[in-house]
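Worked example 3 (structure in, sequence out).
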């Protein structure tokens, strides 16, 4: 037969029960919810930010030949602006290689690659093309003059610091593209060839 609980035991059990109830209530109702605060705005890497922003554009003038005459004809084109003038000059020459959008004749063989463009402090632009520039060039003095001065005039017209242009083929000086225009020195622009 069970012995009845003595008074101190009843008080201890009652106190224990009260403590358990208080802790349970505090745990389930009285605890604060953890607040998750968003961190500071993440800074995008410069390259990703650049991809999201549209690139600045620059209008340039390129020169192309025509079936109708022996003049060079100006054609406006938009290129992406670049951090340096030499990089922008490279973009101008890439567009010249792509050819006219306005029905004029391209003066540079389509297979030609631009290897490099660089400027000197003296105002000379060096434009280095792949061997296809001369190997695939059509014969004739008019075609050669058009090619050489399309390059020279396009650079000199769009870059005020460019006074003369030296055309290189595969990183080296070449006497001519096809026997008519000497390339062994930097050339001055020849804007008299431009159609009015």
């Amino acid at each position: 037969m069970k012995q009845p609980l003595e008074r101190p035991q009843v008080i201890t059990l009652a106190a224990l029960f009260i403590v358990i109830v208080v802790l349970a209530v505090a745990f389930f109702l009285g605890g604060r919810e953890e607040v998750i605060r968003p961190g500071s705005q993440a800074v995008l890497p410069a390259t990703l930010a650049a991809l999201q922003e549209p690139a600045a554009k620059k209008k340039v003038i390129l020169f192309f030949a025509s079936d109708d005459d022996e003049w060079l004809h100006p054609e406006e084109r938009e290129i992406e602006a670049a951090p340096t003038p030499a990089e922008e000059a490279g973009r101008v020459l890439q567009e010249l290689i792509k050819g006219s959008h306005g029905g004029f004749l391209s003066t540079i063989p389509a297979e030609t690659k631009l290897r490099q463009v660089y400027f000197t402090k003296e105002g000379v632009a060096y434009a280095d093309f792949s061997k296809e520039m001369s190997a695939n060039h059509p014969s004739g003095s008019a075609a050669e003059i058009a090619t050489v001065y399309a390059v020279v005039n396009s650079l000199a017209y769009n870059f005020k610091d460019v006074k003369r242009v030296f055309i290189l083929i595969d990183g080296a000086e070449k006497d001519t593209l096809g026997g008519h225009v000497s390339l062994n020195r930097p050339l001055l622009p020849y804007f008299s060839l431009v159609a009015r």
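Notes: The chain has one domain: 52-193. The radius of gyration is 38 Å.
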